Amino acid sequence: MSPPLRPRAAHERLWRGLAHNDLQVVATDHCPFRMKDQKTLGRDDFTKIPGGAPGIETRMSLLYDSGVRSERLSLSRWVEVTATNPARLFGLYPRKGAIAPGSDADVVVWNPQREITWSASTHHMRVDYNPYEGRLVKGAPDLVLSRGRAVIDGGKFVGRAGAGQFLKRAPR
């Protein structure tokens, strides 16, 4: 994983930086390399280990549970660092990262009471491990809309494979 997870002693400084705008984005490049036949490529040579970790499915719940529920982040700051700021950084705002006329109607209906125990046996990512195996979080999406169409409903994929769309980003 790059950058690596930080030691426990650095956690509060990182939360403070996120809360006070020293850090502006929490994102993932989602590198779902499997342990079984991909990560083990580096068994005899660490330079052959593919970098990264799976994170696309866990990121929002982990940040909500540890940030918003623990009062390290406000709800609006959580939205800012997970949606608005990444859209701005990648030149996609206001088409993405906003709920406004002319935006794409990408909406997450969040259930702050929904509990999930993360596990490789139940997540939807195509990877054979979960870095947060066994971790219980409170707060998860009930419904996800992409361009106004449901793609996740009640934790199940209801979208259409291949419905994604390439977006050319604006110059910065």
CATH topology descriptor: TIM Barrel
Poorly predicted runs: none
| Strand percent estimate | 15-25%
Using the alpha-carbon principal axes, give the shape: globular
Q: How far apart are the first and last residues' alpha carbons, in Å?
A: 28 Å
**Class computed from helices, strands and strand pairing:** alpha+beta
Cα-atom radius of gyration: 17 Å
Q: What is the CATH H-level superfamily?
A: Metal-dependent hydrolases
Instruction: Report the major sheet.
Output: 4 strands, antiparallel
Structure overview:
- The protein has helices spanning about 10-20, 60-70, 75-90; strands at about 105-115, 135-145, 150-155, 155.
- By secondary structure, the chain is of the alpha+beta class.
- The protein has a four-stranded antiparallel sheet with strand order 1-2-3-4, covered by helices on one side.
- A hairpin with a 2-residue loop joins strand 2 and strand 3 (about 150-155).
- The radius of gyration is 17 Å and the shape is globular.
- The two termini are about 30 Å apart.
- About 15% of the residues are buried.
Short description:
The protein has 172 residues and is an alpha+beta fold. The protein contains 3 helices and 4 strands.
